[in-house]
Amino acid sequence: MRLLVAGVAAAVALLAAATWVALPLPRGLLAPPAVASVTLEDRNGIVLRGTRTDAGSLQRWVSLGAIDPDLLEAFVAGEDHRFYDHHGVDLRAVARALAQNVRARHVRSGASTITMQLARILRSSAGRRTIAGKMEQAFWALRLEAHLTKQEILEQYLNRVPLGQGAVGVDAAAALYFNASAARLSLGQAALLAGLASAPSTDNPFVAPDRARSRRTLVLRRVARYGYAGADALDRAGHEPLIGARATPPFLAPHFTSRVLQWLDTTTVARAAGRDVWRTSLDLPLQGALEAEVRHTMRSLSDRGVREGALVVLDNNTGEVLAWVGSPDFWADSAGQVDMVISPRQPGSALKPFLYGLAFDRGYTPASVLPDIPRAYATSTGPYQPRNYDRRFHGPVRAREALASSYNVPAVELADRLGAASLLRDLHDAGFRSLSHSAEYYGLGLALGNGDVSLLELANGYRGLAAGGVWRATTWRADPPGPVAPQAERRFASAGAATLVLDILSDPAARVPGFGIETPFDFPFKAAVKTGTSHHFTDNWAVGVTGGFTVAVWVGNFDGQPMRDVSGVSGAGPLLHRAMLVTAKRFAPGDLPSPSGVGATRLRICALSGLRATPECQGQDLDEWFLPGTAPQQECDWHRGGAIVWPAEYVEWAEQNGRAGSQTDVPPLRLTERGSGGEDPGDASQFQIVSPRAGDRYEIPPGIDARYATIALRAATASGERVRWFIDGRPVWTSRWKLVPGRHIARATTASGQSDEVRFQVNDVDKVAARP
């Protein structure tokens, strides 16, 4: 009776076990880890950075077909040479293990198959080193074998097996120990990894190299015993170095990759994709070259109190980030990990192009004359009196010159006419979301960049100008999976207005009055350039736009300490110049859009009044672009009888600057006061110095290398004789003289004895006002 009961019970137990084994595997049991380690590559496939999982392990999933055959054979030979013959439990190995354990009177062998090891990894309860734990492993192994092929079991195991030092899976271990991948390993390397499976902590080559070598030898013997390799291959494998020359794990473009990991962590699509290798848009060779340029700039400006710099490069067509330098040194003790590509600061005059773009869409033209004269504006905090960087007023200035030379006073006047609220809306449409306060908060100072924006926003805004006034988001990815969805876009300026702005910013002649003849903004290709400096010289910006790419740079100090005598020309300008040239070596600059492409036509105008030129404007006439329907119809009436008839609002300014009745425009080298000595001789019948004139006062342009601040030396003579020049008694052998602060005497003589002498003065301007 007892035998019957026992038999029935055994049958029921077997039936229950068989039923349990036949049940489908739990949903999600075999899914790759939800949070795997991530590898970031540059656009060329170069590894930038790898990360660990949240549990602190390195883990990368690879398909069985991508794993080196030597690795498969080493694991099968070393861990379970009858893997392809059993059904999850190797009864012969169990019998052998029992005999060994009985003789040793302790557990020496567990007879675990690869399938049982996988069961232990998948089911934590089956990992207990008890009889019950072994039984659970065995049953789960049978269940896995009932539902999976041998290939599927092996792929699951090789991607989940712990191999020491936090490496999970053969690919992560290959990268850790050999700087390689599981797809390409030598036989010796494969044997070492297989030897780690049984004791990854104690047999680790970093911890116990002798034990690791012994385990590798054991695996190689088993590989030989089961016929997986020949004698020559085994001999070479036994003499291989234990581990490869372990390079420092890549941690390149640190600010960029840190930001990408944040985006991945917060993006549902990225998490759902389940990818462990992401190819970014960054170009590592360009990145390395520009990092060096930023460091070079910091060294060259260190004596002026400049410690930090940043830079970003965008592809105009795709919006891809090509380079991203957040600071000179990510590992610096003092705030090296601050990322100035995304940290908002005041951009100064770098926002002016968007103001002028708005104006062009409201009917203004590059020839529109704006007042650069003293004026006070009523604000909630009292009267606001804007000043230019050079502390001068320039009278009537055309919009082209006002923008290119970055005058502050005309910009504030324009903002007052258009409205700060309209400008703020336009900036929001251009992507400047960091401007989170109201228009009342910023006031007219918004035209001069008194609101905080990021370098990335600034670069993408200028990229929008190159795209014809359309904002599109940037991207860090070079290989979006599947079909590319239409990119969200938002128009903030008409194509005509955007093109005129870029045409002005790429006009070297228009920027001469504000920046001098020679600047860092001259390139062997067409480029639109703008600078900006915040109040008190704490932030210095420069942006360059070509048809193909946009480069934006920032220099300053993270802690807000002011720089000393650094402007857009002397600070960010040289860095921008070198960065543009370096970028152009790897990415074609392309062509900026032409005004003719948006229907603009050229018309001869008066450079002073902005109206249609007449014969009396001769010498002060030039060509200007006009969008359809915006060309001036009125002829210039400012020039009459060889003199200028100033409009009422400019009369006081003209008188104060010695311009009343004069037809000579203000020279670009900052002649601040015209002397009374001498008029231009009508027929040159008398030998006379005409430049400089007696009593002239000049100022050295702030922020410009003094080598480029010069005045012409000219004299009128009827004989055409050669003129010799002396400044303060010293001969000058060129036709231009470099300005030197102080009072000076210019003397001109000829061989026939004619001579003339004038006195003039050069002032050193007080460099305090906010720079464009």
Identify the notable features of this structure and list them briefly.
single chain; 772 residues; alpha+beta; 6-stranded mixed sheet; 5-stranded antiparallel sheet; 23 helices; 30 strands; elongated; disordered C terminus
Question: Can you offer a commentary on this structure?
Answer:
There is one protein chain. Helices cover 34% and strands 17% of the residues. The chain contains 23 helices and 30 strands. A 6-stranded mixed beta sheet has the order 21-23-30-29-26-27, with no helix packed on it. Strands 7-6-16-15-14 form a 5-stranded antiparallel beta sheet, sandwiched between helices. A 3-stranded mixed beta sheet has the order 2-1-5, with no helix packed on it. The radius of gyration is 38 Å and the shape is elongated. The chain starts with a helix and ends in an 8-residue tail after the last strand.
Q: Hey, roughly how much beta strand do the residues contain?
A: 15-25%
Number of strands: 30
Mean pLDDT across residues: 84
Instruction: Identify the strand order in the major beta sheet.
Output: 21-23-30-29-26-27
Low-confidence stretches: 268-272, 663-685, 766-772
End-to-end span in angstroms? 105 Å
| SS element count, helices | 23
Helix residue percentage: 25-40%
Shape: elongated
Category from helices, strands and their pairing: alpha+beta
Largest sheet: 6 strands, mixed
Query: Measured on Cα atoms, how large is the radius of gyration?
Result: 38 Å
SSE arrangement:
Blueprint: H1 2-22, E1 39-41, E2 47-50, E3 58-59, H2 69-79, H3 91-104, H4 114-122, H5 131-147, H6 150-160, E4 167-168, H7 170-178, H8 187-196, H9 209-225, H10 231-238, H11 254-266, H12 268-273, E5 277-279, H13 284-301, E6 308-315, E7 321-325, H14 352-361, E8 369-372, E9 377-379, E10 382-384, E11 395-398, H15 399-404, H16 408-418, H17 420-429, H18 439-442, H19 455-466, E12 470-472, E13 489-491, H20 495-505, H21 508-515, E14 528-533, E15 539-545, E16 549-556, H22 572-586, E17 601-606, E18 621-626, E19 639-640, E20 643-644, H23 648-656, E21 671-673, E22 688-691, E23 697-700, E24 710-712, E25 714-716, E26 723-727, E27 730-732, E28 736-738, E29 742-750, E30 755-764
Parallel strand pairs: 1-5, 3-4, 23-30
Antiparallel strand pairs: 1-2, 6-7, 6-16, 8-11, 9-10, 12-13, 14-15, 15-16, 17-18, 19-20, 21-23, 22-25, 24-28, 26-27, 26-29, 29-30
